[in-house]
Design a protein that fits this description.
The protein is α+β, with helices and mostly antiparallel strands. It has one domain (about 10-250, about 300-615): 6 Propeller (Neuraminidase). Helix content is about 15%, strand content about 30%. It has eleven helices and 30 strands. The strands form six sheets. It has a nine-stranded antiparallel beta sheet with strand order 13-14-16-17-18-23-22-21-20, with helices on one face. A six-stranded mixed beta sheet has the order 8-7-12-11-10-9, with no helix packed on it. Strands 2, 3, 4, 5 and 6 form a five-stranded antiparallel beta sheet that branches. Strand 22 and strand 23 (about 480-490) form a beta hairpin. Helix 2 (about 30-35) packs antiparallel against helix 3 (about 45-55). It starts with 10 loop residues before the first helix and ends in a 9-residue tail after the last strand. Bound molecules: MU-OXO-diiron and calcium ion (3 copies). One calcium ion binds near residues 430 and 446.
């Protein structure tokens, strides 16, 4: 564990400070809005908040969480509030077009067939509307694979074909979907449908393209790589493309019989800390003894143009290399792209990228708004202020003498650069999202049981089993280098000091998304607290960001995580992913803890995209 940059005050001191800030937040909407918008509140925003408090504020609040809470559940089902229904739209193995290869429930599909079907472990996604929103392109990430379920005989008798099938089950699906008159969604026979897998050629762009650390025997120029990997969460750009984020890259590369030395670059990137996938046993590109640089070509944010099925995915190196969770793009003060991003590892960091030139200007000149700009990492001070520290070659800590030869090395080894400038190690930053209207940035710190020695104001709990949600306020200026911050909530049960009502207790917040109405959706992945002594599965809740009210909406099947969320523009169809229901089961019984969604006697549980609608056709979440 690296030391925290700030001295560690006592837990009671921290609790006091946090409490005083929270008391202000709870003091009513006017006070809350004043505190929320900060010193430089735009006058119209403050006036609107005051008017809301005086007249319709309470009504708006009731509308935001307009459904009865779903009780905790351990059932093998998707539980929703009364009046809601769901449809399983796109499970693992579903062909990406109706004429594609049919799913074999005994997992006997070949690698070639898998490449025409939904990959495994659905994660982040985005809906790009067509024809007014009753149809659209849905981009879905496939984060990783459960080899036990992917092959008929699991991991036994590993072969090149099994490696190929596993590679084909990673990546992204682009499908075209349409809502029928009966309200149900279906896949179309679409020219846009495609799979991007771990063998799809991709281009490396931006400051690190061509760098010696990105060169391999198959690609001596360091600009072209096969595939994208561990596609965790996502984000749309402001120019109708899709960002997919490469997360846990360490588990695919075999370093050797001995792990890398402590303190090495490979160690900092987690190489050797997990049992690698068996890919390296049949394909030398995953064996670091043969190809030491291949792993440097993963851990990036990748841009895909879903409207051009022949386009080459682009790895945008200006956004840094880490265990990327998601990427949220907003427009900065000068019209430039600003991207917020978390690095999901214990004691890793929260980042933002600020583009060098306006989006329009860059695109007009044929340049990507994501290829030139400044990458920053966040430092959270004890007093509720914060700074974005630039990761620019030449600043103190990032010089040649410090071991960074150039800007490309700063980006390829982003984590080491962030260590060097004094960023604040966080309790596993996962998704972030930006509040419509205020520009406030919320992000989840999912949990961190390795925080055993010191806390700080932004990570106030030792043995943080249940996680928390942070809020950053840049006073409406995404290009700012300073910010204010607060803790939006502490998850968990009362015993762990949670700020959430006991009947709505949850843990391990991960997915996070503001819908167009301003509801904050929270998805969980990991340890859940009990409610009145009863255990519960992973879930999805909605929160009112201004009042802090929170309500459980959905509970998933056993051992799944809930991740990925997007909706039609009218908010009437909400897409959510159920990832790894039942986890991997057991070698002799893959259905040991879940058989969702097929409940077949011979099949296996499947990750899937579901669509949630209301029986009365209303906006999901509204009253
Ligand atoms: Fe892919 Fe950090 O979740
Ligand atoms: Ca996952
Ligand atoms: Ca996640
Ligand atoms: Ca997670």
């Amino acid at each position: 564990m690296r030391p925290d940059p700030a001295a560690s005050p006592s837990i009671s001191e921290l609790a006091q400070r946090r409490l005083s800030r929270r008391t202000v937040l709870a003091g009513g909407l006017v006070t809350a809005a004043a505190s929320f918008f900060g010193a430089a509140t735009p006058p119209e925003a403050a006036a609107a908040a005051e008017a809301g408090a005086a007249t319709g504020g309470a009504g708006r609040r009731r509308r935001l969480l307009g459904f009865p809470a779903t009780p905790p559940s351990v059932a093998d089902t998707v539980a929703l509030p009364p009046g809601y229904r769901h449809q399983v739209l796109f499970p693992w193995g579903h062909p990406i077009v109706p004429s594609g290869p049919a799913f074999a429930e005994d997992a006997s599909n070949s690698a070639a067939e898998q490449a025409g079907q939904a990959g495994d472990q659905h994660d982040g996604m985005w809906f790009f509307p067509l024809k007014g929103g009753r149809s659209g392109l849905l981009c879905v990430n496939h984060e990783c694979t459960t080899e036990q379920l992917l092959h008929t005989d699991g991991r036994a008798n590993w072969s090149p074909e099994k490696t190929a099938k596993s590679l084909a089950a990673h990546g992204v699906s682009v499908i075209e979907i349409e809502q029928g008159r009966d309200g149900r969604w279906h896949l179309e026979e679409s020219e846009f449908a495609r799979r991007v897998t771990m063998t799809t050629p991709a281009e490396i762009t931006g400051p690190a393209a061509g760098h010696p650390l990105l060169r391999t025997s198959a690609d001596p120029d360091g600009v072209r790589v096969l595939g994208t990997l561990n596609n965790c969460a996502s984000g749309p750009t402001l120019w109708d493309t899709y960002l997919t984020c490469e997360e846990t890259i360490n588990k695919y590369f075999f370093f050797g019989e001995e792990p890398p030395p402590a303190g090495s670059v490979e160690d900092r990137y987690g190489i050797g800390s997990e049992n690698p996938y068996p890919w390296y046993t049949t394909d030398a590109r995953f064996d670091m003894r043969a190809e030491p640089n291949e792993y440097n070509r993963f851990g990036w944010v990748v841009e895909i143009d879903p409207f051009d099925p022949s386009s080459t995915p682009k790895k945008r190196t200006a956004l840094g290399r880490m265990e990327h969770e998601n990427a949220v793009v907003v427009r900065g003060r000068r019209g430039e792209a600003v991207v917020y991003m978390g690095d999901d590892t214990q004691f890793d960091y929260f980042y933002k990228f600020v583009g060098a030139e306006p989006i329009k200007k860059a695109r007009k000149r044929g340049r990507s708004p994501l290829d030139e700009g400044t990458l920053y990492v966040a430092r959270f001070e004890e007093d509720g202020s914060g700074r974005w520290l630039p990761l620019v070659h030449g600043v103190p800590g990032l010089t040649e003498a410090d071991g960074f030869a150039d800007q490309a090395e700063v980006l390829i080894r982003t984590r080491l650069a962030a260590d060097a400038v004094g960023a604040t190690p966080m309790d596993r930053p996962e998704w972030c999202t930006v509040q419509p209207g205020t520009g406030a940035v919320f992000f989840t710190c999912t949990n961190n049981t390795a925080r055993t020695e010191s806390v700080n104001a932004a990570n106030p709990r030792l043995n943080n089993r249940f996680g928390h949600i942070m809020k950053i306020d840049e006073n409406g200026n995404p290009s700012a280098e300073k910010f204010g911050w607060d803790i939006f909530l502490l998850a968990g049960d009362q015993a762990s000091g949670a700020t959430v009502p006991p009947d709505q207790a949850f843990g391990s917040p991960d997915g996070l998304w503001f819908d167009a109405q301003g509801r904050l959706w929270i998805q969980t992945d990991g340890t859940q607290p009990t409610v009145d002594g009863a255990p519960q599965n992973n879930q999805m809740l909605a929160a009112d960001p201004d009042t802090g009210d929170i309500r459980r909406f959905l509970v998933g099947p056993p051992r799944c995580e809930i991740t990925g969320i997007t909706s039609t523009p009218d908010g009437r169809s909400l897409f959510v992913n159920i990832q790894h229901p039942g986890d991997s089961g057991t070698p002799d019984n893959p259905r040991a803890s879940s058989n969702w969604p097929d409940f077949s006697a011979t099949g296996r549980p499947r990750s899937a995209t579901i669509v949630i609608t209301r029986e009365d056709g209303g906006v999901v979440g509204d009253r």
